[in-house]
Design a protein that fits this description.
globular; 358 residues; 0% strand; mainly alpha
Length: 358
């Protein structure tokens, strides 16, 4: 089908059968988002968004029509750059998928209310909107308009959050918030902004340690001393703790690629590497500081970069979420994928895949 032939569905019932069938696996962690990307001609966010938001009763909660939701999803998706190899609407759909998966875990579900769930799904959808395919450091060094606007502080994340609300409020037909009362809107808005800002990696260790110290350790203590599950639930349900849980969910969803099935993990690694290589090329061309010298397409070892990323950021954070939510499938993939990159690295291989046997 050419792009023009693939009409955007008027309702969920109008989704092409092949896509509808694919979306039946959406609750499964091993769901193949790249197949959905191909089937939807790079518009996976609208289709997956319709499915997931409907399953969580988002339209009912916001008192908005499915047509408004669909229009909003299309608007947000169109504001991602399909020219980015990594930060495009497929990444947003992937993060939405992971967020929904986490929200369905029993312990997460019992800790959050529906407003939290709706905020998390919206935050995941918009969290990288209009991403230019360059990092905060690049934008600051280049003296870009965004960096100047946001005073070199959380530049991209501030932009994603602000633009999401600007786009939403621009036109009534795509304004999913138009029918909720002012107080609910304020709370929802605050929560979405907080989650999008939490995806900024400079505060990564602070967010993870707060989660471990304020959620996991006290819960383990309550488990030891109390047989009453109610005291656990009450503890988790405080506003402050719900905030920490929501931040952790979107943070993990945002960088869950190493916990995906190997083939997906490899593809995502190739995509992020390509985006970073392109940035390094541009920095050299413009005479800017090279902020990630390891991501030079002439010298980079992709396996080494993946191993470092997993060691430095991923393992501890997913251990913490796993201890809270129970994520055996993810931890199994993480371990297998780590071994895969280690094996390539030990064989002095710098590429995504081992060389074909000669």
């Amino acid at each position: 089908m050419s792009q023009s032939q693939l009409a955007i569905p008027v309702t969920l019932n109008d989704v092409p059968p092949s896509i509808a069938e694919m979306l039946n696996d959406e609750e499964c962690w091993d769901f193949n988002i790249l197949e959905l990307e191909a089937a939807t001609h790079k518009r996976p966010l609208t289709y997956l968004g319709l499915k997931i938001f409907t399953s969580f009763g988002v339209c009912d909660f916001l008192n908005c029509s499915e047509a408004t939701l669909r229009s909003w999803l299309q608007l947000i998706e169109a504001s991602y750059h399909s020219s980015n190899s990594y930060h495009n609407s497929t990444h947003a759909a992937d993060v939405l998928h992971a967020t929904a998966y986490f929200l369905r875990r029993e312990r997460v579900k019992s800790s959050l209310d529906q407003l939290d769930e709706v905020a998390a799904l919206i935050a995941a959808t918009v969290h990288d909107v209009d991403h230019p395919g360059r990092t905060n450091s690049f934008l600051c060094n280049a003296g870009s308009e965004l960096a100047i606007l946001y005073n070199d502080t959380a530049v991209l994340e501030s932009h994603h959050a602000a633009l999401a609300f600007q786009l939403t409020n621009r036109d009534s037909k795509s304004n999913i918030f138009k029918n909720i009362d002012r107080n609910q809107y304020r709370t929802l808005r605050q929560s979405v902004i907080d989650m999008v800002l939490a995806t900024e990696m400079t505060r990564h260790f602070e967010h993870v340690s707060k989660f471990v110290n304020s959620i996991n350790k006290p819960m383990a203590a309550i488990e030891e001393t109390s047989t009453c599950s109610e005291s656990q639930t009450n503890f988790r349900n405080s506003v402050e703790n719900r905030l920490l849980i929501k931040r952790m969910l979107i943070k993990c969803a945002d960088v869950a690629n190493p916990c995906r099935p190997l083939e997906l993990c490899i593809e995502w690694a190739g995509r992020i590497s390509e985006e970073y290589f392109a940035q390094t090329d541009e920095e050299k061309r413009l005479g800017l500081p090279v902020v990630m010298p390891v991501f030079d397409r002439n010298t980079c070892s992709v396996p080494k970069s993946q191993i470092s990323f997993m060691d430095y950021f991923i393992t501890d954070m997913f251990d913490a979420l796993d201890a809270f939510a129970g994520l055996p499938v993810l931890m199994e993939h993480l371990s297998e994928n780590y071994k895969y990159w280690k094996t390539l690295d030990e064989g002095k291989c710098k590429s995504l895949r081992p060389p074909p046997p000669s």
